[in-house]
């Protein structure tokens, strides 16, 4: 299973994702694809995200049963603690500096 969420993504990227995945909500795509296709989809996201942000989550053989990657400015950032990938939040003031607000 693969889930990807894009925010503030260009229309052409969203259309591209809809070729391989089902858009179940605005910017939320799901599907069951091979590792090779997942990597190709992520490359398309990296190439076309422009000023937006994205996360991709897939099933894998880890303690949590999944893995994920993020791209673009977002208050949530991946952090590995004791070999498990978790999500950390940037403090509000640091988030404003990163996002330029």
Quick recap:
The protein has 101 residues and is an alpha+beta fold. The protein has helices at residues 11-20, 35-48, 92-99, and strands at residues 2-7, 22-25, 28-31, 53-59, 66-71, 76-81, 84-89. The protein has a single domain (2-74), classed as Alpha-Beta Plaits (2-Layer Sandwich), CATH 3.30.70.240.
Description:
The protein has 101 residues and is an alpha+beta fold. The protein has one domain: Alpha-Beta Plaits, CATH 3.30.70.240. It contains three helices and seven strands. The strands form two sheets. The protein has a five-stranded antiparallel beta sheet with strand order 2-3-1-4-5, with helices on one face. Strands 6-7 form a two-stranded antiparallel sheet. The longest helix has 14 residues, at 35-48. It is globular, with a radius of gyration of 14 Å. The mean pLDDT is 89.
Helix content: 25-40%
Main sheet record? 5 strands, antiparallel
Identify the CATH class.
Alpha Beta
Give the second-level CATH assignment, the architecture.
2-Layer Sandwich
What number of structural domains do the residues give?
1
What Rg, in angstroms, do the CA atoms define?
14 Å
* Fraction of residues in β-strands: 35-45%
How many helix segments?
3
What is the topology, as strand order, of the major beta sheet?
2-3-1-4-5
- The parts where pLDDT drops under 50 for at least 5 residues are none
**Rounded mean pLDDT score:** 89
Which sequence of SSEs, written as H and E, runs from N to C?
Answer: EHEEHEEEEH
- The global form is globular
Number of strands: 7
Q: Which class best fits the helix and strand makeup?
A: alpha+beta
End-to-end CA span = 36 Å
């Amino acid at each position: 299973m693969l889930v990807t969420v894009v925010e503030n993504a260009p229309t052409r990227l969203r259309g591209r994702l809809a070729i391989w995945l089902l858009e179940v909500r605005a910017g939320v795509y799901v599907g069951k694809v091979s590792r090779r296709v997942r990597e190709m989809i992520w490359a398309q996201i990296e190439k076309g995200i422009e000023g937006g942000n994205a996360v991709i989550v897939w099933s894998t053989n880890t303690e949590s049963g999944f893995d994920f990657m993020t791209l673009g400015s977002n208050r949530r950032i991946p952090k590995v603690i004791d070999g498990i990938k978790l999500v950390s939040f940037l403090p509000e003031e640091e988030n404003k500096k990163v996002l330029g607000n």
